[in-house]
Amino acid sequence: xxxxxxxxxxxxxxxxxxxxxxxxxxxxxxxxxxxxxxxxxxxxxxxxxxxxxxxxxxxxxxxxxxxxxxxxxxxxxxxxxxxxxxxxxxxxxxxxxxxxxxxxxxxxxxxxxxxxxxxxxxxxxxxxxxxxxxxxxxxxxxxxxxxxxxxxxxxxxxxxxxxxxxxxxxxxxxxxxxxxxxxxxxxxxxxxxxxxxxxxxxxxxxxxxxxxxxxxxxxxxxxxxxxxxxxxxxxxxxxxxxxxxxxxxxxxxxxxxxxxxxxxxxxxxxxxxxxxxxxxxxxxxxxxxxxxxxxxxxxxxxxxxxxxxxxxxxxxxxxxxxxxxxxxxxxxxxxxxxxxxxxxxxxxxxx
Length: 351
Ligand code: DAH
Known about the structure:
Layout: H1 3-23, H2 27-38, H3 43-50, H4 56-96, H5 114-127, E1 132-133, E2 139-141, H6 142-145, E3 164-169, E4 175-179, H7 185-193, E5 198-207, E6 219-230, H8 234-249, E7 255-260, E8 265-274, E9 291-300, H9 302-307, E10 315-322, H10 324-332, H11 345-348
Parallel strand pairs: 1-5
Antiparallel strand pairs: 2-4, 3-4, 5-6, 6-10, 7-8, 8-9, 9-10
Residues 182, 184, 224, 262, 265, 296-298, 319-321 line the site of 3,4-dihydroxyphenylalanine.
C-alpha cells in the first residue's frame, strides 16, 4: 500500500468512526464501536499495522498521523461514555420522579392529650413522694368495687354511685360484675396482695350510669392514692396532699379540709385549695367561693383493713381519690368536660 493510500485509509476510518460515534446512545453500542475501530482487528488497528510496509521516512509522517487519529478516537470514546452514563442517570431520575433538591415533607408533631399531661403530673408528684403507680381492671367484681369498701349489698351508700352492670350473675341470681365506678377497688386489691408498708397511686378509667352535661361524663378518670403503715395519722394525709396541691397549683396554695362522708374512710374529708386564679378573693373559676374542692380523702376504715387481713390496731392508713378531668379543667380553664372526649383538634391543639 502506498503511503498516500494508507494516509487516506486512516483519514476515512477516523471520519467514519467519529460520525458513527455521534449517533450512539447506549453502552453496548459504544463497546461494539470500540471493537470495530480500536480492537485487535479494528479498522484503525489494521491501518496501524500496515505502517510496517512503508519506507522509513513515510512511516514517520503517516505514523504520526495514525497515532493522532488513535488518540482522538480514544478520547472521543471516553467522552461518549461519560455522556451516555450521565443521560442514563438523568433518565432514571426522570422515570422515578426523584427531585433531590425538593425540600422534605414536614413531619407533623404530635402532642399529649391534656388529660395525659395532667395524669403524668399527678403521678410524678406522688412518685417523688415514694408512691408506686399501679393499675387495675376496668371491669370489676361487686366485691371489690363495693363490698370490700364497706358498702354492703342493699346499703343506701350505693346510691352515691350510678352503676353500669355487666350480665354476670352470682349463685343467688344477683348481678356481680360492673364497670368500676371508681378506682377505690384497687385499695382492697393492693392490700390483699402485699403486706404494709403500702404506698400506691392508681390512675385509671371509671364508668357510671350518668346523663352527660358540662361537668358529668359517663366515663372519666380517677386517681386513687393509698398509704398504709404503722402509725400513719391524719397529719400524714394532710402533709402529703398539701405538698401535692402546691406542686400542681403553685407554692402559694393554702388547703382546707372539711368533714365529708365516704363509706371506706373514717374520718372522711374533702380537700379544697384556695383559688389559684384569684387567691381566694372570689372569681369565676371558684364560683366566688375563694375555695376549690379538688378531692375526697380520709383514714382507711378499720373494716376495710380487716377485710384484707390487716390488723387495724397495728396498721393505719389514709386514702384519697380525685378526678383528673376536674383538675385539668381548673388548671387550664376548660369549661366543659365533654371536650376531653370529643376528639376536636381545635381543642386539643391548645395544649
Ligand atoms: N371513690 C370516691 C368517689 O368515687 C373518691 C374517694 C373519696 C376516694 C375518698 C378515696 C377516699 O380513696 O378516701 O367518689
